[in-house]
Amino acid sequence: MCVPQAPADGILKLSVLSRADSHPAKVDLGVGAYRDNDGNPWVLPVVHEAERRLHSDPNFNHEYLGVGGLPALTSGAQKLIFGKDSPAQGRVYSMQTISGTGANMVAAVFLKQFKEPSDACVYISKPTWGNHRSIFETAGHKVLEYRYCNYETLKLDIDGMLDDMRAAPMGQIFVLHACAHNPTGIDPTEEQWREIAKVMKERGHFPFFDCAYQGFATGDVDSDAYAIRLFVAEGFELLVAQSFAKNMGLYGERTGCLHAVCQSPSVLPQVSSQLNRLSRATISTASAYGAKIAGTVLEDPELYGEWLMSMHDMSKRILAMRWLLKNKLVKLGTPGNWDHVTEQIGMFSFTGLTKKQVEALRTEYHMYMTDDGRISVAGLNTHNVDYVAESIDAVIR
Ligand code: PLP
User: Fold this and answer.
1) CA geometry: angle at 361 spanning 356 and 364, to 5°?
2) What ipTM was reported for this prediction?
3) Could you tell me the distance, in angstroms and rounded to a whole number, from the CA of residue 37 to the centre of ligand 1?
4) Residue owning the nearest CA to atom 6 of ligand 1
5) Taking the C-alpha atoms of 173, 174, 179 and 184 in order, what is their torsion angle to the nearest 10 degrees?
6) Is the C-beta atom of 174 inside 6 A of ligand 1?
7) What is the pLDDT of residues 79-114, one digit of tens each?
8) How many CB atoms lie within 10 A of CB 64?
9) Are 242 and 78 in contact (CB under 8 A)?
């Protein structure tokens, strides 16, 4: 066998560098995981409570889950993403996956095997989550990019995006971030989503929504599902990858779902059978522990209400950090306009820092962020935000 070296994964490489740095001033703004104001991971109180309930159940066990995953999770997840009275009801198949990544992968293979025309390409936003290209290429797709971020204004390049959708051949696959776009933190407005849906319908494009941050963009799960629900209301067939890593803090438990919205209930048996087959071939059965936690939270009205409040708290803290960072940069007179820090939403901010500045921040200031200048705002807190702003100021001057 002749095996060439695979390219290094930027985020994983960054985590290794950050872990190896024991400097007391170190700030890790790389990984997209929520941290509390002391920089620690946060186990949501509802997750603790769900675990307590699971362990006090005398029937708790570690048996395999059935085909398709845990019904408490898949049905609750479906309601969460499409809303309670969705016009899609009765024609959606929801299957448990290995978090959002697994949902992306199953979707990618499914689309490669069944999407027509069979030579349809996959279009990803420029930029996008680093794994999208790798996942879709691994599944055998040709991957192209559509314009998304205007790198000068750090705002959405809506004209470029729509032009690229119009220019693409009919019937292509478009990967859309449902909310809190990673890495830019720039989302289309509701009006822009309507334009996107209109153009995609005219061109017969297929929407694949990746939803890894529901609740993180606005703090409200329904507002964050706006785009998906709009496309459903517009009658699209579509796929949604849904992750509970960030919004329930179940990162390593690998809890997620893939939802397939079909044109008619009559095709559900075929679609579900093929998705189940792909799942069986890759993971055999889905992982149980995180699903039981999430299922408990989604099924219990009291826990569900508390979970919504926790999500609101997380998004509020992130927003407060955006304002502290921007205000400090403005106060320092740091060259440039910093409005984008508070205009962008979700976990990430695309700062506009260059690769060279990012490198200087890493080597001279022990501050870790991806080479494209993306910071995870969740890594900021009241103890480090001044240091972060002062360091950014120093490398820019
Ligand atoms: N999709 C996007 C856009 C992401 O940012 C992430 C995680 O960073 C994922 C999917 C997958 O996350 P996970 O597999 O941890 O659920």
Assistant:
1) 110
2) 0.99
3) 23
4) 212
5) 140
6) no
7) 999 999 999 999 999 999 999 999 999 999 999 999
8) 9
9) no
346 pLDDT more than 90: yes
Angle at CA of residue 232, ends 226 and 238, nearest 5°: 110
Closest ligand 1 atom number to CA of residue 177: 3
Asked if 111 and 124 touch (Cβ cutoff 8 Å), the reply is no
Residue 283: DSSP 8-state: T
Distance 101 CA to ligand 1 centre (A): 6
User: Each residue of 43-71: pLDDT tens digit?
Assistant: 999 999 999 999 999 999 999 999 999 99
| 177 Cβ below 6 A of ligand 1 | yes
User: What b-and-e string marks burial along 171-198, b requiring 16 or more CB atoms within 10 Å of the CB?
Assistant: ebbbbbbbbbbbbbbbbbeeeebebbbe
Name the E strands within the chain.
Answer: 27-28, 92-98, 122-126, 143-147, 149-150, 155-156, 173-177, 206-211, 238-243, 255-261, 348-350, 367-368, 374-376
Q: Which residues pair with 249 in a beta bridge?
A: none
Report the C-alpha gap between 386 and 397 in whole angstroms. 17
Q: Which of 308, 136, 150, 288 is nearest to 206 (CA)?
A: 136
Amino acid present at 77: A
Tell me how far apart the alpha carbons of residues 30 and 139 are, in angstroms, rounded to a whole number. Answer: 27
Residue among 243, 248, 250, 283 to mutate when testing ligand 1 (max atoms within 8 A of CB): 243
Token digits for 196?
A: 């996107």
- Whether ligand 1 lies within 6 angstroms of the CB of 210 is answered as yes
pLDDT for 121-146, tens place per residue?
999 999 999 999 999 999 999 999 99
CA dist., res. 51 & res. 293, Å (int): 6
b/e burial code for range 336-375 (CB count within 10 A of at least 16 → b): eebebbeebbbbbbbbbbeeebbebbbeebbbbbbebbbb
Provide the pLDDT for residue 193.
98
Q: Count CB atoms within 10 A of the CB of residue 305.
A: 10
